[in-house]
């Protein structure tokens, strides 16, 4: 998993074993459009991919990005991420609506957008926001929550060992990312019958069908995302239908 450092280490191990092992490298995203494009790493990333016996990308988007940005001749197979539907499924949900966001709180995840969108939603519909994860933008997000006076409605849960429990009782998953090579968190939510409102970037359109099991919007279009969220939160029959469609999507994939 990941072209750097794991594929590089695997190549060295293969040489030490005189080529008696095969290297299968799975590209996840940051190894391609973050580390891979750094001038300090690009050559070794390209070398590691080209010298793998098999290359896998988690989405068609990531395959396309890799072929455009690197000079490799090795064919790339697309094998999407998957989740265990027996683990991620709907559980009991209370009367108060819960919006959930799970990420590593990197700038690309745009957690501030999550908070701002929630600020718009809570003016129209009583609900709570669970922010799950840790990362560099957590503190700024906490400051924004205080600035908007949302402290009693926003819960920073930190790193959670089993996010399925939170997803199982959530009503909506919000993912306003700048970039997503696939969107595994969205897939976990969908398996839990949770409609997803996300950005139309990267591999997300390969996972979420706009208007059927979730909604997609442009990056930074907070008003539209808030509108989509309210559409789901205020229409119980629509929310249930989208939730069922989302889980079926996971089972079919």
UniProtKB/TrEMBL annotation:
InterPro entries to which the protein is assigned, alphabetical: Glyco_trans_1 (IPR001296), Glyco_trans_4-like_N (IPR028098), Thiol_BshA (IPR023881)
- A GO molecular-function annotation: glycosyltransferase activity
Gene3D superfamilies associated with the record = Glycogen Phosphorylase B
Q: Name one GO biological process term.
A: bacillithiol biosynthetic process
Q: Where is the Glycosyltransferase subfamily 4-like N-terminal domain?
A: 1-86
Which parts of the sequence belong to the Glycosyl transferase family domain?
A: 93-247
Pfam families hit by this protein: Glyco_transf_4, Glycos_transf_1
Protein name from the UniProt record: Glycosyl transferase family 1 domain-containing protein
Top-level taxonomy: unclassified sequences, metagenomes, ecological metagenomes
